[in-house]
Write a structure and sequence with these properties.
By secondary structure, the protein is mainly alpha-helical. The protein has one domain. About 75% of the residues lie in helices and about 0% in strands.
């Protein structure tokens, strides 16, 4: 084993460490989203009723001058922004010493991640009112989404709030790979 082999192995260890930090950051983003849902609904016994969830969503939506229909999008905005920032500052961070193709792939991936996060928040609002804008229709939609993961309307709200983070990461990574991103250094 020569010095080049040792340097290559050390670089791989650093890449694994970076991946672990990224996973930790994404987990922290998920925890932030859970905290946002919890804060909006209170997650007390009273808040887990239809009326409690409705009140929590209406309170969240009132932050932007909307009502219950805007609540899930408001709850999605924080985690989507934080997730995009974390993903862009870890996975797609611009670093000196990278070949131009890698730097370009990361730059475009950062842009795609940010745009996808914003689009995801707008989509969260649109999905919420897909069945109608009445309280009953919104609750039914959220309960249906939550049913996919074995929960109800609260689980649906959490899924709607976290989906933009997952979509932003997936789209950003897809663009990165499409443009030839492979951690190449000069």
């Amino acid at each position: 084993m020569d010095v080049k082999d040792i340097a290559d192995k050390a670089a791989k260890v650093n890449e694994v460490r970076k991946d672990i930090k990224t996973v930790q950051a994404v987990v922290n983003t998920g925890a932030a989203a859970s905290a946002a849902v919890s804060a909006a609904t209170g997650l007390s016994v009273a808040a887990t009723s239809g009326a409690g969830i409705t009140a929590g969503l209406a309170a969240a939506g009132s932050v932007v001058g909307g009502g219950m229909a805007a609540g899930p999008a408001v709850l999605a905005a924080g985690p989507a922004y934080a997730g995009a920032v974390i993903i862009n500052n870890t996975l797609f961070k611009d670093e000196p010493g990278l070949v131009e193709e890698e730097r370009t792939a990361r730059t475009v991936a950062r842009t795609a991640t940010g745009i996808s996060a914003a689009f995801g928040v707008a989509s969260a609002g649109a999905v919420t009112v897909a069945g109608g804008a009445s309280g009953a229709a919104i609750m039914s939609t959220l309960a249906g989404i939550g049913g996919v993961v074995g929960g109800g309307a609260i689980a649906g709200t959490a899924v709607v709030a976290l989906a933009p983070v997952a979509a932003a990461g997936a789209i950003g990574y897809g663009v990165y790979k499409l443009l030839g991103g492979k951690q190449k250094r000069n």
